[in-house]
Amino acid sequence: MTAATTSHTATPRTGDLLYTEIEDDLRSSVRSLLDKRSSWDAVLARTESADTTDRELWRTLAGEVGCAALAVPEDLGGAGASWREVAVVAEELGRAVAPVPFLGSAGIAAALLLALGERELLAELASGELVVALAVPFGTVPGERPVTVELREGRLSGTVLGVADAAAAHVLLVPVGDALYAVGSKANGLARHEIVSLDMTRPLVDLVLDGTDARLIAQGPQVHDAVTDALRIGAVLLASEQLGLAERCLDMTVEYLLVRRQFGRVLGSFQALKHRLADLWVLITQARAVARYAAECAATGSPDLPVAAALAQAHCSVVVQQAAEECIQMHGGIGFTWEHPAHLFLKRAKSTAIALGTAERHRAALAGLVGIPGAQR
Amino acid sequence: MTSTATAPGSSGSLDADGLAARVQALLDDHDPATTDRIDFLRTRFDAGLAWVHYPEGLGGLGADPGLQPEVDVALAAAGAPDNRPHTNIIGLGMAAPSILRFGTPDQQRRWLRPLWTGEEIWCQLFSEPGAGSDLANVATSARPDGDGWVVNGQKVWTSLAHDATWAILVARTDPALPKHRGLTFFVCDMSAPGVDVRPLRQITGESEFNEVYLDDVRIPDDQRLGEVGQGWAVTQNTLMNERVAIGGGTIPRESGAIGELVKAWREHPERRTAGLHDQVLRFWVEAEAGRLTAERLGQQQAAGLPGPEGSGAKLTHARLNQQVSALELDLLGDEALRYGDYSARRPVLVAHADSPAGWRYLRAKGNSIEGGTSEIMRNIIAERVLGLPPEARADKDTPWKELPR
Ligand SMILES: Cc1cc2nc3c(=O)[nH]c(=O)nc-3n(C[C@H](O)[C@H](O)[C@H](O)COP(=O)(O)OP(=O)(O)OC[C@H]3O[C@@H](n4cnc5c(N)ncnc54)[C@H](O)[C@@H]3O)c2cc1C
């Protein structure tokens, strides 16, 4: 490979793509907790229970491990860590397809409140006492402006469909025009309808606001920018979640192929399968590099963050789907049953690939960011 | 960060500042504008700034290998000459690490400096008509004779044999042993009597590689690398380094094939179609993912964490290069129907980016074959990384001379 290049976009500093010791420690404490408290059969049982969020688990994760406070500055009762550490937790939660409101509350909502300097809510969010969710459809692409709620005589009206982490939220952050309002979950005129979501482990809610009481949090053009930034942080974290899930799919498939025998030999000795797993491993090592780069850009406030986030979603969304699909296929009949976790993985994988914008939408975003203009005819 | 330094004493603690000072001292004493190119390169080698992680006296300072890019960048910025790595990729990427690991101090002193400066080009006499992917099957024989060896056999696909001063060579020294155990690793003088290099014409029209006939070639025993019968261990080490050399390393965003594609896209608005647009973007994403993966591989190695990602990087690089260069021809349309020059010729070594798109498309077909095929890379990943069972190897324990051929 030669170094000659046209370099339309200069190469930004890559930064540290490895895991620090602190991050490794954080990962192992989260993983051991999830192994104990969130095995896949427990996750499956949870999806079929009345309350689809594992609130007990969330209390432990937030209260004891401090997962909700990671990105919040210390003077607000946070841990003063960075989005890199948050991303490591996202990897583990993705790996376990854990039904907790981490992405929406400790990720997107925390980023939004940080951007707007809303200290009080942030402190409560960091303690884990309060779950906060941004009231936009889960498929919203960073930069998009979904307008479905309006202000009439100081009250909010409208509907927002398919909101993630809203089932467990105590406070909803609702963008209205160039303003952001906070709505308490018990507010008059607010109805939450939990829908059957494709991903059984991440409940989605349709919100109906009908003259709902709301508190103004911020107003002005900075609100749209802050929402965009927050969704972008969400995309970064979602990529790490996808990485964790893809790794789990590969690990579980390799384990199975080392014990399952057909034709008198273990299936893992067949080259056709070995090569597909090797290809998957290559994709996952790439997903790790891309997800780590996005987390590093988020942590350091790199000007390349918009590129890194779109790149991470454009790549990891593809990888996680392939990992989950291969997991089902290589498990054969058992992989198609309700009794095996592969279906939970596929449902999570596919919905994360649509959440916060499909790979195609992120490629379109990249086209603008790196100067690869579209066709003129 | 742990250093993989091999030199004793001072060296392990040498940091970026220490290196920067040495770079400055080199530049102060030897102005690149007025110093002869080779003199400058030799001095740089002697100053330990050639490959900083090598031991002192052998072109390095036992420093952290992660610091090398900073040295390269600083010297390039000062207008210092480079050692043109693309003309000597086998020497730098494959021969040197094996000489460092398995060579005697005499061998290291004799070969490493002119190798690094590019004064001596190296080639790799590994593949044979009957031993490609199954490299341990080589039939070329090395028979002991006095204080040396007499070598007979035929090698094939030998890149740059016509330019090379030296070759790394794997030959069979004991046909009675199973195939992996009867091999020995040598360094062959390409001007020795009995070495016959014949060009092989390839898909692009040119002859970058060759057949090499070895007819009673004498190799002195002090050109043996590693112990007699240990040739496979040396070879495997060489191949591992080859994969990292092909797939790893720090490169700019939009380098190589993707850079050319995107350039053609930007320069030809009249050829852009909606259908091609998303494909171009897909490849941009894949190339950037590959680039960051190579960066991460480099960081892992610098931190002393050996990673098996080399094979993955080689696999990705080959596939992407092929797909991207193919798409570039689609984009160029009528222009791509003109090739330029199929006449038989020796390659003119220019940067890939300066070569025509058709040549790059055809040359990329070799990327999934040279240095181990993509199928072999997948076997390596499946077995060594994922721990899946090895391919059946019926010939593993049979004496080589009894194997069917
Ligand atoms: C441009 C170029 C430059 C080269 N330069 C050099 C050089 O300088 N020095 C040198 O020594 N060699 C060189 N080579 C040779 C190269 O290393 C071999 O061509 C390569 O290792 C494949 O061997 P083969 O050609 O004998 O193919 P074969 O091994 O016969 O393979 C044929 C096909 O079968 C597949 N195959 C083989 N074994 C397996 C298996 N176990 N499982 C699944 N599939 C398998 C292969 O992947 C391939 O698709 C060069 C090759 C090229 C193309």
From TrEMBL, chain A:
Ranges for domain Acyl-CoA dehydrogenase/oxidase C-terminal: 227-367
Domain of life: Bacteria
Flavoprotein as UniProt keyword: yes
Residue ranges of every copy of the Acyl-CoA dehydrogenase/oxidase N-terminal domain listed in the record: 20-121
GO molecular function annotations of the record: acyl-CoA dehydrogenase activity; flavin adenine dinucleotide binding
Keywords carried by this UniProt record: FAD, Flavoprotein, Oxidoreductase
Pfam family for this entry, one: Acyl-CoA_dh_1
Family: Belongs to the acyl-CoA dehydrogenase family.
Protein name as catalogued: Acyl-CoA/acyl-ACP dehydrogenase
Lineage of producing organism: Bacteria, Bacillati, Actinomycetota, Actinomycetes, Pseudonocardiales
